[in-house]
Structure to design on (390 residues):
């Protein structure tokens, strides 16, 4: 299981490295975005062919095209994400004396005015974005005063823009104008100008959208890889935690077993020492009799069998006599008890002492209570308390 987890983690890291390497090479740039909507302002020149033969041969320039030397066309338009644009166009021109106007030689210079609106469509929405070349077609309505005759017109336009940046471009177009409402002539108006684009809103091109989809897919894969790595890390951490908890539980159980064993051993030793009984002294004496020595011999054996056992020797007196005297008597009794154990080879470091005097009676036989000799004897003793094991 551990080997499988390591293999899985290694494979995941390889995939992660591959994903990150590809992601470094795949980034959206300005080339992946296009202008989706904007305003355009244009100024330039217009050329009018009102020869009467314009729609049969619109390339003839000499004697048919009319123009002025200064900028003669201005337009403003709003263009939408759908590719549709709405424009307002104003033009001025001059029919030159001697040019062909409606099949006749123009006898004098005549001013030309035009005010048009048109609806255009960006053909790149169909053929795909080129970035530089931007063809369009359109149709609209207008009013033109030409050859001293005013007329409403139906207009059709075809043209293209060449973009040098997001802001600037050149615009070339040709419009056919068909009059309605009178017998005024139909004519063609050509135009060339400079465009400035503003209030731009951008979006991704088709290639940019494809790149974004790929980037998102890679991000998703990256997240999957990260999730896999995180899952592997969690699994490893959980396994380590489980092992640590198991070890702690094992240590806790071992410690509990040790404590229980120590408690049982302590209780056993306390019971064995209790079975030996106390060392009893005669009245006003600190000497050990044979019975007392037998008790201490048994205690010495227990101490020798349990080298880590330490005890406290506590000695007391009965209540008869002054308490200060009894305190001194109990000190002599505890010392005689300790000295005997030392004579049997017990280390002094394992023995502590306490003298009670008459302050720690084992029965009711205080100074105000009459007791028999047997009851007073109970308090004339050395007793043994387990202090430490280990």
């Amino acid at each position: 299981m551990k080997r499988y987890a390591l293999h899985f983690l290694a494979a995941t890291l390889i995939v992660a490295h591959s994903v990150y390497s590809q992601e470094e090479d795949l980034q959206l740039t300005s080339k992946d975005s296009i202008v989706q909507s904007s305003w355009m302002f244009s100024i330039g020149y217009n050329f009018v062919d009102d020869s009467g033969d314009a729609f049969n041969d619109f390339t003839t320039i000499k004697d048919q095209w009319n123009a002025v030397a200064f900028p003669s066309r201005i337009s403003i338009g709003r263009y939408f994400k759908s590719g549709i644009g709405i424009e307002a166009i104003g033009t001025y021109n001059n029919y030159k004396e001697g040019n062909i106007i409606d099949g006749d030689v123009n006898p004098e210079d005549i001013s030309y005015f035009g005010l048009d609106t048109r609806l255009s469509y960006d053909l790149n929405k169909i053929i795909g974005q080129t970035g530089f070349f931007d063809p369009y077609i359109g149709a609209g309505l207008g009013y033109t005063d030409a050859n001293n005759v005013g007329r409403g017109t139906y207009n059709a336009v075809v043209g293209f823009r060449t973009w040098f940046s997001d802001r600037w471009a050149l615009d070339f177009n040709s419009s056919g104008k068909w009059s309605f409402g009178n017998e005024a002539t139909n004519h063609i108006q050509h135009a060339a100008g400079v465009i400035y684009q503003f209030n731009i809103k951008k979006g991704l091109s088709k290639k940019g959208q494809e790149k974004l989809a790929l980037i998102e897919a890679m991000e998703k894969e990256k997240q999957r890889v990260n999730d896999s790595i995180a899952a592997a890390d969690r699994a490893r951490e959980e396994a380590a935690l489980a092992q640590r908890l198991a070890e702690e539980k094992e240590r806790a159980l071992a410690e509990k077993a040790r404590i229980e064993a120590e408690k049982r051993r302590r209780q056993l030793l306390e019971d064995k020492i209790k079975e030996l009984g106390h060392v009893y002294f005669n009245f006003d004496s600190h000497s050990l009799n044979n019975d007392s020595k037998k008790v201490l011999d048994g205690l010495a054996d227990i101490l020798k069998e349990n080298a880590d056992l330490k005890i406290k020797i506590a000695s007391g007196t009965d209540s008869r006599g002054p308490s200060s005297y009894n305190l001194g008597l109990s000190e002599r009794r505890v010392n005689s008890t300790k000295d005997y154990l030392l004579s049997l080879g017990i280390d002094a470091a394992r023995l502590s002492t306490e003298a009670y005097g008459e302050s720690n009676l084992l029965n009711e036989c205080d100074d105000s209570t009459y007791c028999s000799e047997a009851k007073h004897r109970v308090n004339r003793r050395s007793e043994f308390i387990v202090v430490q094991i280990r």
